[in-house]
Amino acid sequence: MKNFLAIILVIMGLSVNAQTDTTLAPYKRFPTLPPIQILLTDSVTLFGKAQIPANTPVLYMLFDPGCSHCQHETEELVAHKKDFEEIQVVMITMPRSTFTEVNDFISKYRVNELKHVVVGRDITYFMPSFYSIRNFPFLAMYDRNGNLITAFEGGMGMDKVIGYFNGGSK
After folding, report:
1. Which residue from 32, 36, 41 is spatially nearest to 106, judged by alpha carbons?
2. How many of the other CB atoms lie within 10 Å of CB of 27?
3. Which residues are bridge partners to 138 per DSSP?
């Protein structure tokens, strides 16, 4: 009887563990460009998926203005601005970041030098749960058809990011 009970407990433990392993983050279950709604730094204008030009690759970069890794990633992004001329860059921060902090970040790191860049706050906190974010920066890359290329948590060299957009590293 003790062996039978032990076997049942082991099977239950394995089934719970198996369920945890197969639970995917929403962005993996729905690998297309998600609906977003961010409040731009003018504190009035909303920007959503509908405002992204058709047939344009997209880079979502979730960041925190005070994060040193995010600052470095942004410096690299601006240094490679010519490589991103045909890519819609959407930089998204959480509501806890003030507009002053975000605008200071934009000025300091010359984000406005990028041709197709939009910066705003995720006022609905949609992105952290959709991407299961634990750390910033977080990058999500989508091809011109809105299909997920890859997502990456932490800093990534912009040469590698461009490589993904050009059909490289997968």
Report:
1. 41
2. 19
3. 62, 153
Mean pLDDT per 10-residue interval, the chain, length 170 residues: 50 50 82 94 94 95 95 95 94 93 95 90 93 94 96 91 81
Among the CATH numbers 3.30.70.260, 3.30.470.20, 3.40.30.10, 1.10.8.60, which is that of 26-165?
3.40.30.10
Which one, of 33, 32, 42, 34, lies nearest residue 119 by Cα?
42
pLDDT score at 20: 46
Q: What is the pTM of this model?
A: 0.83
Are 113 and 77 within 8 A, CB to CB?
A: no
Beta strands in the chain (DSSP E): 37-40, 46-48, 58-62, 88-93, 117-122, 138-142, 148-153
Radius of gyration of the chain measured on its C-alpha atoms:
19
CA neighbor of 93 nearest in space, from 84, 83, 102, 85 = 102
Strand partners, 61: 91, 139
Can you read off the two tokens belonging to residue 17?
């563990």
